Amino acid sequence: MRRRLTVTFAFVALAAVALTAWLTLGAVLNAQRDLFAQTPASEPALQDWSATDHTVGGGSPGTARNAFRTVTRTAMLAGFLAFLLATTVAGLVTRRLTRPLVALERGARRLAAGERGLRLDLPPDRDELRSLTGAFNALVGGLERQEEWRRGMVADIAHDLRTPLAVLRSELEAMQDRVRPLDDAGLARLHREVMLLSRLVDDLRTLSTAESGHLELTPRTVKVADYLRTLLDSLAGRAAEAGATLDLDPIPEGLSATFDPDRIARVLGNLLENALRYATPGTVTVSAEREGDRLRIAVRDHGPGLPPGDEERVLERFYRGDPSRTRHEAGSGLGLAIAKAIAESHGGRLEAANHPQGGAVFTVVLPLGAGAGAA
Hints:
By secondary structure, this protein is of the alpha+beta class.
């Protein structure tokens, strides 16, 4: 690219010099012709400029020819010097212009070769090339964060798979060695670990499908109050086991929305399970309201709340809260990430915050959809 720019600038300079020289020589010729037209003795010279010496207006022989040759040589020398100067300046300018591009090209090759921690110096001029270099550095930083996140995710998956697999292995080996009897209790333990593995694999598949935008949705318009009452009734037994009660705030009977009820049930189920796991015995409150063209469904517990600064991180994959803040064994760390991904696949979002009066509150924000509304 640098060579092409230099050649282009040099060609433009050469064309400009040639045009200038041609116009200069033409002007000289026209001036001399006008001079000869006023002197009859010069007329033969105008008819044959290549003839021998001429006398112009009583001057010495060959004065006109010598003057023309002098002008020609001067124009050619000026043109050569101008071309040389233009080529030199073009080379310096193109070198300065293309230096950041060359650095970007080399940086891209180093990045493709697997080098990490790569950062390019920003050009001194605040122009498009500086912005492009900054964007390249931001891209490298994003790739590094993605790589770090991928390594952490693989490590978390391996950890979650290793625990139930280790239990299965020890149980089976104990049964093979006749240390443990092959009875109903042993089979129940094996079945429980297999179900843990199955749920983890299903969660990973659901999360991957939702985040890739390929989650199949079957939306339909539902009455929000009836939908939430049915959902809470189905979870009443689980809440009783956790020593909590589920409470539904009053909702206008005419409030309706369009979404996939099964997928949103998964979202709310994960939020309620999280509340029952981390909340102290008490009440978990569910509320719903319309906000413009959006439906907001909030799940609030009365537990210790979220650790300060973790309001965003709590929605990430494999996030697990402080074990001291829960009365139960921590889950896989995928429940809230799945809830967030499903909400986003509906064109909505999931928000996490601490309630001013204590406890955590998770809010699902969904578009009302066509045909939805409130009384």
